[in-house]
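Need Mannose-6-phosphate isomerase's 3D structure for a figure. Predict it.
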Amino acid sequence: MYEKEPIFLEPVFKERIWGGTKLREEFGYDIPSDTTGECWGISAHPNGPSKIKNGPLEGKTLEFAWGNHRELFANEPGDEFPLLIKILDAKKDLSVQVHPDDKYAREVEGEPYGKTECWYIIDCEEGAELIFGHHAQTRDEFEKMVEEGEWDKLLRRIPISPGEFYYVPSGTIHAIGAGTMILETQQSSDITYRVYDYNRRDAEGNTRELHIEASIEVSIIPHVDPHFDPTREEKQGLTSEKLITQEYFTVYKWELDGKVSMESEEKYLLASVLEGEAELITGDQSYNIKKGDLFILPSTISGFSLEGKAHLVVSHT
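Structure prediction for Mannose-6-phosphate isomerase:
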């Protein structure tokens, strides 16, 4: 099963109050509405599992493949697929939010994973920014600023540019700003605690639920910028930048301009094509990959080649 064959995936789309149309305009996806905020591209999460588009498991979900064909993932242990890859189109500001760690998620929410994530900025408008961290030095100061709505004083805003990368550990207060498109690599979790939502209302005129108590419990106070050291490697026609290696994931930016042959050193690879197109060769099979394609190179593939001009973000556990 999939001895030399990649697993191509059909994404799941989520409509959001802050979403737009760039997932259609930039990637050609068939989105459900003009307020589509999230593409769950490689997902085995029960709230939005991707469907397999090719091979013997065509029509099955990635969740099914993980549960029934663990040999495709080097028999990695765990009841739940560990990662979730998204592309987000933030036409408007996302809510200010925070995610719990594994311990809190298990003990309080009964979920297997908390949510540590990272962002690759695909594109953003001039002047776009993130909320990343806060200025409170103690928990009491944090609670007081939240209670009194001193958001400009509390929240730390930073300007962003395309191609930048941000690591967002659980407990980090954050928000993606309007006019930003990112690729998000995260633990497979859908737990979000909203701290602030600009007092906006949904289509029915209702404000969205806030989770102030839980947010205060799980937030890192004071904020600490996480440390990581990207490294770059040139191999034949590929420039590979290892953006981060940490407990939950390793993430690379691949810039292909020519041809490269690679051995699969990891258990399996998750790949998102963000620009261009290329030929993927596995064994005696060849596949055309293009912007918007999302696929897994399972553990049954020991080596592969790429030829073309393309930009991918690739990850593994």
